[in-house]
Amino acid sequence: MTRRWADNRRYFREGGQAGFETKRGCTGGCVYCADPVAKGKQTRARAPEAVADEIERLLSLGIDHLHTCDSEFNMPPWHALAVCREFERRGLGEKLRWYAYCAPSPFSPELAVAMRRAGCVGINFGTDSGDEAMLRRLGRCYAPEDILNATRWSKETGMTVMLDLLLGAPGESRESLTRTIELMKRVGPDVAGVSVGVRLYPGTSLAEQLGAGQDTSQPVFHLEPAVAPFVFDLLDALIGDDPRFLYFDPNRPERNYNYNANQRLTEAIRKGHRGAYWDILRRAK
User: Fold this and answer.
1) Low-confidence ranges of the chain (pLDDT < 70)
2) How many angstroms from the chain centroid is the CA of residue 118?
3) Residue 62 is part of which domain span?
């Protein structure tokens, strides 16, 4: 993986994140996710040495801020540990700042320490919800306690944490929304990203469940009818002015954290900020 087929230097210079994969495919059962459809339901792992070779090539180009493109970096955890240890063995952790997508489980204090020693500075956990029943409906295999532990272990090593929420799936209620926001406040991430409405991708079990067609010319979203009339007012009341939360309320566009055409993000990148866009927004405040 020589990374010679694109102008990586220009991409990074103009604000793009250099991505790298350690594996492809996902064995997860999330009902809404298109990754198993697009990349396969079996994991094909790269040799840790090959991943480290690619990172060294990017470093030689002056690119030292990166982000994983794995569906979940820590699935399976043994491979994530092997990659981190290879990075540490080569001393890459002292030269890199990289971010990862991870699931709250399986996650461990051992992996958190290994990731930090390998140069990881931030983790985006695909949390989705803080309500146990909603997590089951979404096909997630962890509990609210796992979210709390993964966040705590990561922050104890010095990594920043974002918890991504996906609200409005079938079965969502006033109570589940309230439990989710209350858990986020108790867990205490550096950033909590709130998305309202679930996109329906052809080939996913959620799209089949809701009878969505195969036409992909326009994005199709689902928002639970039981919460649609009040969801933004409720979230606004629950979140208040807590600066850790990023979410788009149609009535308050200044809080929008859509990365596309985000003026605050654009200005921060122009001033030299690099890294995960959610972390740039956090630091740029």
Assistant:
1) 213-214, 216, 250, 252-256
2) 19
3) 8-284
Coil/strand/helix, residue 69: coil
- pTM greater than the 0.90 cutoff: yes
DSSP result, 82-147: HHHHHHHHTTGGGT-EEEEEE-SSS--HHHHHHHHHTTEEEEEEEEE-S-HHHHHHTT----HHHH
Whether 3 is in a domain gets the answer: no
Does 2 reside within a domain?
A: no
Residue 94's domain is classified under what CATH number? Answer: 3.20.20.70
**218 lies in some domain:** yes
Residue 18 phi, psi (nearest 5): -80, 120
The predicted-structure confidence for 123-155, as pLDDT tens digits, reads as follows 999 999 999 999 999 999 999 999 999 999 999
How many domains are contained in the chain? 1
135: nearest Cα among 171, 184, 161: 171
Helix or strand run (H / E) with residue 62: none
Q: How far apart are the first and last CA of the chain?
A: 37
How open is the CA angle 181-183-186, to the nearest 5 degrees? 115
pLDDT in tens, 20-57: 999 999 999 999 999 999 999 999 999 999 999 999 99
Query: Do the domain assignments include residue 1?
Result: no
